[in-house]
Design goal:
- The chain has 177 residues and is an alpha+beta fold.
- The protein has one domain: Kinase associated domain 1, KA1 (TATA-Binding Protein, 2-Layer Sandwich), CATH 3.30.310.80.
- Helices cover 37% and strands 24% of the residues.
- Strands 1, 2, 3, 4, 5 and 6 form a six-stranded antiparallel β-sheet that branches.
- The longest helix has 23 residues.
Length: 177
């Protein structure tokens, strides 16, 4: 009979700790649907885990909107298509002019809300984007990806405005990881 050493117990302990961590994170940060009437008007002051492209922009290179020369319906279809193509992402709320999704990190499944609101203005579709980590005081650079997307979006704004029906291509470029 072979004697069991400490390695199997250690491995079992690590696996147990991992699953306990995931369960604790899900209990501490349950999904709370952000309805269209509840779209945040701003990120908390000095927040390091929130980014917003909107009138009160935050951590988005001063970008206040994304303006796309396409119908609201077409743009929102492309937004949802892009979200659905991302790993670890789930759409938890859909309305004609808003989509609320949750991005979960690979290892510990930390949830980040990602809400895109669209509306028509002067013949174009205007998008506002809100992204926030639910736990902690910093996102360790994860939500900062929204800032990078804002930078790309600014670079492509002229193309968005000047080339109708480019919403799908622009969304893919803007949100590419």
């Amino acid at each position: 009979m072979r004697k069991k050493g400490p390695l199997p117990l250690f491995a079992l302990g690590l696996v147990s700790l991992y699953f306990l961590s995931i369960i604790s994170i899900q209990i501490a940060a349950p999904d709370k649907l952000i309805q269209p009437d509840d779209f945040p008007s701003e990120c908390p002051t000095e927040s390091l885990n929130c980014s917003m492209i909107g009138p009160k922009h935050h951590r988005s290179d001063n970008l206040t909107e994304l303006r796309i020369n396409s119908s609201l319906e077409d743009v929102m279809v492309e937004v949802r298509r892009w979200i659905s193509s991302q790993p670890g992402t789930e759409i938890i709320g859909e309305w004609p002019g808003q989509t609320h999704s949750v991005f979960r990190t690979l290892m510990f499944r930390f949830p980040d809300d990602f809400v895109v609101r669209g509306f028509c203005e002067d013949g174009s579709t205007v998008l506002h984007i809100y992204s926030k980590s639910r736990l902690g005081v910093s996102d360790l650079g994860v939500t900062a990806a929204v800032r990078a997307r804002a930078h790309v979006a600014r670079s492509w704004q002229l193309m968005i405005v000047s080339r109708p029906n480019m919403a799908g291509i622009i969304m893919e470029i803007m949100f590419r990881n």
